[in-house]
Design a protein that fits this description.
The chain is mainly β. It has no helices and 2 strands. A hairpin with an 8-residue loop joins strand 1 and strand 2.
């Protein structure tokens, strides 16, 4: 069986209404590939621009 040449991971989230003066959020994303594995850090305290989200 041929091994995959690449993998793709999509993350989708919805933000609740933010205060009008908030233009960024700080986000961390950790994934676990199986119940027996440890979490892998994809993103640790990354700043995400949400200007114009509301």
């Amino acid at each position: 069986m041929e091994k995959p040449k690449s993998y793709r991971l999509n993350i989708d989230t919805e933000l609740e209404k933010l205060p009008d003066d908030q233009d960024e959020i700080i986000l961390s994303i950790f994934v676990r590939l199986s119940a027996e594995s440890d979490y892998i850090t994809l993103f640790d305290r990354g700043s995400v621009d949400v200007e114009g989200h509301n």
